Amino acid sequence: MLLINCMYLLRNMGFNPRVLVEELSSDPIDIIKGNSEDVYNRYGKFLRKFPGDMERNLVRVSVFPSTFSAEDMLILFDGKGEVEKAKTKMVQESLLQTTKDGKHRVHPLVQAFCRKEVGTLDVGNEGDEAKKKFNDFYLKRTKILSKLFITKDKACEAISKFR
């Protein structure tokens, strides 16, 4: 879907390739929505067919900027049991990808859709709550790591933990 849309823009519209790469990096949903609304609408229908709990969980994990572990998911979920159920369902439905090192990630297009269109999904204020929990947790972690960073012989450890 994304490739066909990009080919159309480059071939038929004379779209500047550099601008396209920048746009896709910053907000792929706007490119698709603006140029292939029918494809975009079908994509939204596909995601909306999942049960409400699956949509809520997708919106939750879409706040992570890259890969995350089950332990990281505890920030957003109420216990290990809930994390395991959500993770297992999303992996089974191919909504979460598992990396070689055992971490998980949401496909970038699904992530962008969940972030951009959270208001059209039936998830209430789940997106705002997840962002708040994520931000609060990492702000606290950043404060701790900054203190560790300035401690003698601990800078490398702090950088590693930050990554």
Uncertain residue ranges: none
Radius of gyration: 18 Å
Into which percent range does the helicity of residues fall? 55-70%
Largest sheet: 2 strands, antiparallel
* Terminal Cα span: 32 Å
Report the mean per-residue pLDDT as an integer.
84
Order of helices and strands: HHHHHHHEEHHH
Q: Looking across the biggest beta sheet, what order are the strands in?
A: 1-2
User: Would you tell me the structural class of the helices and strands?
Assistant: mainly alpha
Which descriptor suits the 3D outline?
A: globular
The number of strands is 2
Number of helices: 10
Strand percentage lies at under 5%
SSE layout and pairing:
Elements: H1 2-12, H2 17-26, H3 28-35, H4 37-48, H5 52-61, H6 70-73, H7 80-92, E1 96-98, E2 104-106, H8 108-116, H9 126-149, H10 155-162
Give a structural overview.
The chain has 163 residues and is mostly helical. The protein has a domain at 1-49. Helix content is 67%, strand content 4%. The protein has 10 helices and 2 strands, in the order αααααααββααα. It has helices at 2-12, 17-26, 28-35, 37-48, 52-61, 70-73, 80-92, 108-116, 126-149, 155-162, and strands spanning 96-98, 104-106. A two-stranded antiparallel ribbon has the order 1-2. A hairpin with a 5-residue loop joins strand 1 (96-98) and strand 2 (104-106). The longest helix has 24 residues, at 126-149. The two termini are 32 Å apart.
